[in-house]
């Protein structure tokens, strides 16, 4: 699979423990592609730093990309975004619920300061 942002090769990783979820990490931009990411899936993401190993500075270089094609169903992914009380922006396919997060975003969004707002932007 190719990265939907930089077209680098994606490597498959998965969460540990019960109820694993599939995650693909780009070997170039270190972005994370979730085949499906819902609020209930976040319970399975225990250690975001083990999954999201890329630099937030590198991830920020791809923030301005607006038209990102879903690798699963080829539709343009919706950009989910809020600016207040915190700034969150990521890509979500409203057809198949696949999700793309730039490097550093998963660690940031699962922190205590961002988690509730991030969860509110995900499907049930």
Give a written overview of the molecule.
The longest helix is centred in the last third of the chain and has 7 residues, at 115-121. The mean pLDDT is 91. The protein has helices at 48-51, 56-60, 105-109, 115-121; strands at 10-14, 22-26, 32-34, 78-82, 88-92, 99-101. 31% of the residues are buried. The chain has 124 residues and is of the alpha+beta class. A six-stranded antiparallel β-sheet has the order 1-2-3-6-5-4.
Main features:
single chain; 124 residues; alpha+beta; six-stranded antiparallel sheet; 4 helices; 17% helix
Task: Tell me about the largest β-sheet.
Answer: 6 strands, antiparallel
Portion in beta strands: 15-25%
What gap, in angstroms, lies between the N and C termini? 26 Å
User: Structural class from helices and strands?
Assistant: alpha+beta
Per DSSP, the total helix count is: 4
- General form: globular
Radius of gyration: 13 Å
Mean pLDDT: 91
- Catalogue the unreliable spans: none
Write down the secondary-structure element order. Answer: EEEHHEEEHH
Give the % helix.
10-25%
Number of strands: 6
User: What topology, given as strand order, has the largest sheet?
Assistant: 1-2-3-6-5-4
Question: What would a concise description of this structure say?
Answer:
This protein is an alpha+beta fold and 124 residues long.
């Amino acid at each position: 699979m190719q990265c939907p942002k930089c077209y680098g090769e994606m490597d498959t990783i998965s969460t540990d423990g019960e109820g694993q979820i599939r995650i693909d990490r780009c070997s170039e931009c270190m972005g994370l592609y979730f085949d499906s990411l819902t609020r209930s899936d976040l319970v399975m993401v225990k250690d975001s730093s083990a999954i999201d190993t890329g630099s937030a500075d590198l991830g920020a270089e791809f923030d301005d990309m607006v038209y990102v094609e879903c690798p699963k169903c080829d539709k343009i992914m919706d950009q989910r975004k809020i600016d207040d009380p915190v700034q969150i922006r990521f890509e979500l396919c409203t057809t198949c619920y696949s999700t793309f997060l730039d490097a550093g975003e998963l660690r940031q969004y699962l922190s205590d300061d961002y988690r509730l707002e991030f969860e509110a932007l995900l499907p049930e």
